[in-house]
């Protein structure tokens, strides 16, 4: 039992940090896969599919993440499924990240000039080949900065799952605070740990955006 | 007392001197053309006169307001000095009338109901009386530049500075702007123009200053400067125009 | 085992839902007012201030953008008493959300300020305007126009982010919902109703931002023959 804030506390928080990073990676992979499919469907699909995906993006972006998390955790378990906090956390964050990544990537796909499509057409590429060899590689370049920027949001958003009892970094901080009653030390350390993960990502994102601007200047 | 007096003006960017001690006096009603190659410091000197560029040494005096390195008196001086830029720099979100009345209103406290009279007065001087309600993006480059001149006139400046005001214009639009400036000259406005229009400088300017390597290399009556250049640098510079 | 939805017990608590919604609107508008003021000040300090000001501003922005709002809330609500500052849950919520929005909006404002050409500022100065007057009359409206979409997007995120304040029991909609959920055991229904209310609020606000935008940038569209109009022509011919 930890009684006051010290080296043991930092180790305890570090375990939480590992879960935060793990959950962030799951979310990024899940949100990335669905986000890409949704982005393609949103910008290139038939009209009904575009409308459906647009509706999904609009609704999720207009709902607080905390409500999405609660709906997954409390709500769906009543439908007969039981979700342990980890699964509920991963599912709700994936639902959330999918909407935002799909929106970001749709913008990147639509930023590719029409002339590129025409050039690919003129070379007799099939629709799939057009995407695979001409459009997506260019959209990928543009998307790097915003995507890394959104990874920062994902890492920070995992903290909300503390409120359904998933023991990641923030929840670990709450537990530690209940043991030590030293909230200032505890939460400052928690904040510092998030910062150590997020700041390099933010910095990298800015670099990528600058490089993009430098690239388009020519 | 001269309308504008520059004494020993020195400026450098880091270790690179751009102005190496400029002395210049402009009398009331003078029209001074400043010519020279790019990099000779002529635009920098003009930008120093109304404080857009800080400088390290010397003083600039306009109708009794003295500007030095301390940059005190800066706004007092700017109220007396109008400036027109190469890229017009009209405010895109304001109409022509609003562009013109902005500074008189907020700097000099011009009452709102006197605004439209002022707009009419200065616009008629640049021949654009009917454009008061237009927005900058509805005007041609030449018209925008004339509005910029009107905007500057609205502050009733004692001295006006023109920084290569026709360089960004198509040749067919240059004429209307030069004509407007010539009319101001006739009306007795004291002006300093940095320009590449040699013919215009020779015709309209009472005096011409040739700048070279950050100094006033040669100056005198415009006719004199263009017909009897003394230094080889000036001869070289104006040679193509004399052919 | 099929689960039967029953909204009746939740809807019976409509008065609480309404007052929760009002509390959320109050919390949001207070935080937005303070947050945007902080953001503008931080942006000006960074762009136009002395060197130390730029360092202070950048440190603040990075610290708040790279840590979660929930942790900021905990730090201010549980941690500040350690320094002798005791805040109510609602005060801590306003404080944390404002500082959070301040950091994000500072970056947005900064982008807007930097997007205005330097020549516009020089033209204002040359006309005798003070730096403050140049900001007010020359820079703000065109800059606001450039950043308006990202700024209003951020305000939406702030509105939705207030739900996190329920974690320290600040009075707002999600707390009201949590109370209803714990008493009716109708979790799915409760949170669906909350989601519907938040979605409605978001759409209403987006519409209001659009109206405000129309008013703020009420300049008419250029009449004819603009370059943009001619450039888009070939596209339309094709489709």
From TrEMBL, chain B:
One of its GO terms (molecular function) is ATP hydrolysis activity. SUPFAM superfamilies: P-loop containing nucleoside triphosphate hydrolases. Keywords: Amino-acid transport, ATP-binding, Cell membrane, Membrane, Nucleotide-binding, Transport. SMART domains: AAA. GO terms for cellular component: plasma membrane. It comes from the Bacteria. Residues 4-238 form the ABC transporter domain. Its main location: membrane. It is a peripheral membrane protein. The keyword NADP does not apply. Pfam families: ABC_tran. It is found in: Cell membrane. The keyword Nucleotide-binding applies. InterPro entries: AAA+_ATPase, ABC_ATPase_HisP-typ, ABC_transporter-like_ATP-bd, ABC_transporter-like_CS, MetN_ABC_transporter-like, P-loop_NTPase. Coiled coil: none annotated. Belongs to the ABC transporter superfamily. PANTHER family: AMINO ACID IMPORT ATP-BINDING PROTEIN, GLUTAMATE_ASPARTATE IMPORT ATP-BINDING PROTEIN GLTL. This is Amino acid ABC transporter ATP-binding protein. It comes from Phyllobacterium pellucidum.
TrEMBL record, chain C:
It is a multi-pass membrane protein. One of its GO terms (molecular function) is transmembrane transporter activity. CDD domains: TM_PBP2 (cd06261). The keyword Cell membrane applies. It comes from the Bacteria. The keyword Transport applies. One of its GO terms (cellular component) is ATP-binding cassette (ABC) transporter complex. It is found in: Cell inner membrane; Cell membrane. Keywords: Cell membrane, Membrane, Transmembrane, Transmembrane helix, Transport. GO terms for biological process: amino acid transport. InterPro entries: AA_ABC_transptr_permease_3TM, ArtM/GltK/GlnP/TcyL/YhdX-like, MetI-like, MetI-like_sf. Residues 21-209 form the ABC transmembrane type-1 domain. The chain crosses the membrane at residues 25-47, 68-87, 93-113, 157-178, 190-212. Belongs to the binding-protein-dependent transport system permease family. HisMQ subfamily. This is Amino acid ABC transporter permease.
